[in-house]
């Protein structure tokens, strides 16, 4: 698929081009060094920002959030985001690859249990309780210290500190009791969503995903409605719609190119698909989004 939105790699942001697994920094100097990152862009890595000062807004996949101290947000690879800050902004930032901590764990699906790493913007922005802030800030300071003063097994220490922080944040969300205890339906939905992420351009029908999951289409549909409150077809269409919105943020791509990249037979069919779900045409969505950004 044509990449219409800039995709940022860790090595692009790092001083050392060989640094491709993790980048850790205080946020103010990071922001000063990368002033061009206010425009919509994707990451090829996980992106974590914790705010200690500042205000403004940031947008993740067309969901807008107010920036405030004590807030932490996460992003998964492929999501589109932008920010508009007001005044001085500071905090901490950690960019890390999917393999950075996974390589440290025996359970390959361990991070699937953290809601803030599931790709849903509403779960990715966490307002931390005031009583938790000193402990979270202390962990960030220890992580920064490991980077500023490298020591033996420093990379492993960073992984341990990050894991400790993730567990604390998970507790703040009140999600700890059932961690790692997903039932059959939740596991099935997670596998369904992973398949959609891989195949949404070419595979459009629930029956084809049901076949990949070795279940019947009716069973897949029933589980989707039970867990997500949506039909299996709606889940697939929503992922296609999200990618359409992402592509529409680039004014250099015309509607026909976007329809082609999303495997629609023609521009008219794509427009009808988009308007039926979103309520406006792709052109109207683009105009509205770009006007808001400007």
Spell out the blueprint of helices and strands:
Layout: E1 7-8, H1 10-13, E2 22-26, H2 27-33, E3 41-43, E4 46-60, E5 63-67, E6 71-75, E7 80-96, H3 98-102, H4 121-124, E8 125-127, H5 133-148, H6 154-172, H7 184-199, H8 206-212, H9 217-227, H10 232-248, H11 255-261, H12 267-278, H13 282-293
Parallel strand pairs: 1-3
Antiparallel strand pairs: 2-7, 3-7, 4-5, 4-6, 4-7, 6-8
Helix pairs in contact: 5-6, 7-9, 8-9, 11-12
Describe the structure.
This protein is of the alpha+beta class and 294 residues long. It folds into two domains: 7-172, Sandwich (Jelly Rolls); 184-293, Homeodomain-like (Arc Repressor Mutant, subunit A, Orthogonal Bundle). 47% of the residues lie in helices and 19% in strands. It has 13 helices and eight strands. Strands 1, 2, 3, 4, 5, 6, 7 and 8 form an eight-stranded mixed sheet that branches. A hairpin with a 2-residue loop joins β4 and β5 (63-67). α5 packs antiparallel against α6, α7 crosses α9 (217-227) and α8 (206-212) crosses α9 (217-227). The radius of gyration is 20 Å and the shape is globular. The protein starts with 6 loop residues before the first strand and ends with a helix. 22% of the residues are buried. The model has no long low-confidence stretch (mean pLDDT 89). Keywords: DNA-binding, Transcription, Transcription regulation. Residues 190-288 form the HTH araC/xylS-type domain. It comes from Mucilaginibacter rubeus.
